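REVIEWER CHECKLIST
Item 1: Sequence provided? yes
Item 2: Single chain? yes
Item 3: Sequence as submitted:
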Amino acid sequence: MPIVRVALDVPLNILFDYLAPDTEITAQDIGRRVRVPFGRNTKTGLIMEVTTHSSVDPVKLKHITHIFRDIPSLPPALLDLFHFCSEYYHHPLGEVVMNGLPTRLRSNKPFTQNFPSAFHYCLTAAGRAADTSAIPARSIVKRRLLAKLRESGSMTASEAKQFSQRAPKALKELAALRWVEEIPIIPFETSASGVKTAPVPILTPAQQNAINVIAPKINAFNTWLLHGVTGSGKTEVYLRLISLLLQQARQTLVLVPEINLTPQLEAVFRARFPAVKLVSLHSGLSPSERAAGWLQAQQGDAEIILGTRLAVFTPLPKLGLLIVDEEQDASFKQQDGLRYSARDIAIFRAKYAGVPVILGSATPSLESYYNAMSGRYLRLGLPSRAVKNAVLPMVRCIDTRAVKTKESFSEPVIAALEKCLSLNQQSLVFINRRGYAPVLLCKSCGWTAVCHRCASRLVVHLREKKLRCHHCGHQERFPGFCQECGDQDIAPFGHGTQRVEAALIQRFPDARIMRIDRDSTSRKDAWGRMLKDIQEHRVDILVGTQILAKGHDFPNLSLVVTLNSDASLFSTDFRASERLFAQLMQVAGRAGRADIPGEVLIQTEFPDHPLYHALRQHNYDLLAQTLLEERKTAGFPPFVYQVLLRAEASRIDAALDFLASAASIAKAPKQVEVFDPVPAQMSRLKGMERGYLLVQCRSRKKLQEFLAGWRIKLDALPSYKVRWTLDIDPLEF
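Item 4: Structure as written out by the authors:
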């Protein structure tokens, strides 16, 4: 009797053996889902191996309950990708596998794809030859429908309803007679219908050069770093290369960092390729929608797959190209569970498949920039904007030590906003802090409202009269007095998007002001409606967070104002300067993207800081080389490879004791450094106390060899009441 080895979603790095009927299971079933008994319950897992031997006594083995044949088996290439992720990130294989499947496919029920509600109806040969007199004289609707179908050959359900409200029922009856064939309209075909092919722009010399260099090598693995300034036309390069793959009937996977970038990019792709089958995969879809798109990709029907981080695990039988847009974005790194980097997995997947991968960015991560400088990646530059007469905006720093501010705004900024309004141009005020104010302060005793579950302050949301924690989601009512001394003189301190919006409304009462942050875009389709209002010039001033910083094209926007950017200049996080520069470059890039000159005003107390100096020159290379020198001296990535052992418990001493035990059993070789355990920068999060243990090495291979043995020892450590995880290549500390 065959034995199947099944990957289950449990925190154990082993496969589970089950007995299978001889007649049902073969090696062809590797990659299929099965339902199996597990303890007192049943679980759905994935067959990873079919064998005839087991290390477990056959008497103790249980039988599988059911094998799902509702979708094709996962291909070997995807199973190999799961194995790689499990080995590199030192994470249980079963959790890796089930994480890569859509939610609908993880359940214990068979997957049944809901038929779309839209149909079109075609006349069959039997219907064309049918005798109309066989239809009763009183069935006028049927007669009219049959006559129309004989004239046109087909019609949609909406066209049929124009005859009568009873038309859909009549068509069903004709279909039962086999006179009419009912054909479902696939969702992506519905979306594409009516979309005119967008005009193809003339390429700049730099764009043409990038395509000329990549195109001859389109069928071989290379990692291309497409480094182009904001508005340089990286998307157009993607489109031209995708068209080459479509001619070869091959699939392209495009990864974007955030769901908010998906609608605009999808619209661009559909406008260029209206007849091409495109699916989007992101968390904004329902489980059924996501599973349906995933299945279309697996079957090779979808030719362009556009998605966020998790889409990197989509099965693609005809994969020809991977694109990672805004590759520097931290959103590509999963921060819980399987802590994988979608960018790094995309590179591995491209190498495995022998296809190219393109990393696009105006501000590449220092790791990617270093790899390009050292020759590991191939770098292509787009140094100028693609639109004719469009130039990079002028960046000016306003020294707030010399110029006073009122409600966060200096006089030069107010004057610039007034000028924009008079010219009927749009402006953007950028502050990367949502809510009304970050602190609620008692002026008498200095009390501040803090979250009892996290080591952070509660943020004031004045309109809702709530205090909220932006880390764990805890919220409470706005208090009427100080919780320490009882004084009623408590007030919000600092500025967030809501307070900035209120100040602008008071200063410019006739202006149309829109706030864009996670709170205002939380409702479904809210972001799409906001984008439409911006594009159609129904907004004068935008107030927003980093949601607005990346990938958006606002042709009428001429002014960008940034507030409170100094907070990141002297952070303890060694990546803070890199992130701040990328953020400011991206948000500055929203201005002057068409023929309207752009201007960027940065309010700062440190106008002479090297970061602002590089920003004024739009010189990424200048800052990148400075930061690389600093990191080389300090021994930080990309010159070393890091792993963070994270531990959390209800008491900090329990977490630190576990980390100390982990350090004592490490027995690291000379090349591997194991640092002392320390409390996390945010020591308490969601009610748990947290600590870290950092391990680093200059050789990735040596580090992985050490981790393989250390992970086994960690699994054997007593960890009662302690949750721990290994974070490979961590981005957050």
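Item 5: Key structural point noted by reviewer: Residues 205-382 form a domain with the Rossmann fold fold (CATH 3.40.50.300).
Item 6: Recommendation: ____
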